[in-house]
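Holo prediction. Input below; ligand is pyridoxal-5'-phosphate.
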Amino acid sequence: MPEPKTFHMTPDEFRRHGRAVVDWIADYYERIESFPVLSQVKPGEIRASLPPRPPDVGEPFDSVLADLENLILPGITHWQSPNFFAYFPANASGPAILGDLLSSGLGVQGMLWSTSPACTELETHVLDWLVEMLGLPQKFLSSTEGGGVIQDTASSAVLCALLAARERAIHSAPTQEKWNGKLVVYTSAQAHSSIEKAVKIAGMGSENLRLIEVDENFAMRPEALLRQIEADRQAGLTPCFACATVGTTSSNAMDPIREIGCICRENKIWLHVDAAMSGTAALCPEFRWIQDGVEFADSYCFNPHKWMFTNFDCSCFYVADRAALVRTLSILPEYLRNQATDSGAVIDYRDWHIPLGRRFRSLKLWFVIRHYGIEGLQFHIRRHVELTQQFAHWVKEDRRFELAAPAPLNLVCFRHKSGDEANQQIMDRLNRNGDLYLTHTKLNGKLTLRFCVGQTNTEARHVAQAWKRIQEEAESLQS
Ligand SMILES: Cc1ncc(COP(=O)(O)O)c(C=O)c1O
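Structure of the complex:
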């Protein structure tokens, strides 16, 4: 009797197709520079190329892979291109991709320690490694009252920090009254929109979010923060949470954490430090000045999925008092009870973030750290900063352009002196042409170009070519 059809991919088919996929990815990286960095398709174009109905009968894997090449690839913006200088990077690397593949292969759902002890313990271990690697305070180590967890994004991390801060404020209040629309949140006018979003989601009221004024370098003014806190107290409100940024999205400004931290400590305000992209620079001791004062932080976050060669998603979130976080997010229905949890001897990371289920994300991070070693990671971060500084130098030397903000690490904010229209034109032409991809912001009301070096395979020749192309576009403006 013939075997009944299972519809599954057999192990042998999986091996064959798996090799083809790995080959496809390796080939993709080899030819990545041949694609326009920014996808050139029009809205709806990709969907129009797809069959309107799903297949009734399963299709050969080879034809699915062929469609990836022919139908999907045109709609890809090539974040991994060495000519990608837009936004902040979301870089990836061989070891990260393979670690992620293994995570998929194991198919672990690590909501509890007991649902895969290695998933929890490797995560705790790697996050402890990172405390040392980045020179973060010891209070973030799992052996203390604090500890770290991998979240999907920095946006989720700041939301969890805010919820824990609110819980702490309510907990320590003499009555529940204080919560009633009276808790106030502080961040700089240049902070990432995820803070505003967290306030929205937490239902704390956008009228209770204070965007503190910044100095000429776009960093938060601590004296303005203090003034605002005092005014809020006088108005009968309760200062609750502040977020300082190490490397703002617009211009890579560094908030003075030490001064902000002193103010927060005196006023019993939870301080969260958002180092989403720039935190990775602290791998190099010479860049650790960016987080001076981080010992004042109640929580801290940085994204290896931005600049640390670990593909999306992977955001490391640390707290100094994990009890505050767990008290905020913990629930224990009967169906999740187990001996290990009841013993209190293990970490159940489901209590450290919003979703219950969780992927084995630490695997890719572990692969990256073991593959590159601290030496390899430092080498590439230093190289990116060096290339950026070279670019900033070229901008300064060209009298048609000006720097719009200091460039402390790997982002240059610059503009053509002829004004917004000229800058818009330069950017649009470059992006349409596809040679490179850069994006913009507004600083002091003026359209500003952002050039961020953080792609895994970006080398000196890519940066030099990008500058040449920018100059060419500037030239054609004048003609
Ligand atoms: C400073 C800063 N904070 C937070 C975020 C949000 O990151 P995520 O996409 O991980 O939520 C970003 C994104 O660029 C950022 O630059």
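The CA atoms of residues 250 and 441 lie 6 Å apart. That is the main takeaway for now.
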